[in-house]
């Protein structure tokens, strides 16, 4: 069964618009490490038309380490929150269902602006970067960065229990880009 990415999914995640079955593709992954703190993953996700940086909840790091989440993975976002930090809107992924791997990046996404329109954001980022050494490693930069390995897609639902108390929302839009993902199982029916 073909998987369909829908135009407006990334914008909906960022603005709080209600979506049904928000599917996105991982197009870049960056690992952030700071002494004494858990590893953080910044994922660039795409709906085929727009892309958006999102933070993966620390409780979901095991999915990256086990290679269930990697470059070109298509995933359904089950729970997320969008918060403002230092003048930027930050989407934090709390729970996902990995749906499969695709052999290329779908569409030609353009990055969305995540700033809240304040100069304060830039000043804060500069202050933080100048005061603390932070190791950032971009693990996957483009669709040629890593050879693909197969993994079983069992439509696992994964949720980070550390973020249960945060609000979540879901989003959607009409336009779509299709891509077939081989032997990926059908997504479970959603209630409501």
TrEMBL record:
GO molecular function, one term: DNA binding
GO BP terms, alphabetized: DNA replication
Domain Replication factor-A protein 1 N-terminal residues, every copy: 6-96
Region of interest: Disordered: 152-192
InterPro entries noted in UniProt: NA-bd_OB-fold, Rep_factor-A_N
SUPFAM superfamilies: Nucleic acid-binding proteins
Membrane-spanning intervals of the chain: none
One term under GO cellular component: nucleus
Protein name as it appears in the record: Replication factor-A protein 1 N-terminal domain-containing protein
